[in-house]
User: What shape does this take?
Amino acid sequence: MVATTKAGMSPARKYLRLGKLPSETRKPPTWRTGEDPLADVWKNIESMLELNPGMQATTTFNEWRRRYPGTVQAGPAAYNAA
Assistant: This one.
């Protein structure tokens, strides 16, 4: 590794030149992969969470599904729908 770095052939030469780690050069994505299914009901969900901060995730999810049918799906089908 030392010889390749000295010769300028290191795979890490880009990061050595920048003085940054690879994780420091990544930019967060700026795109969405689909519409936000909770955009219309998020304020209501947020207030529900504020009233019940100790509510477990599965209970919260099932309550969302009961109050807003069709906005979120459970299981692998939710991933295949997109």
Remarks:
- The CA atoms of residues 34 and 82 lie 7 Å apart.
- The mean pLDDT is 78.
- The radius of gyration is 23 Å.
- The helical segments are 2-6, 13-18, 22-25, 42-51, 57-67, 77-80.
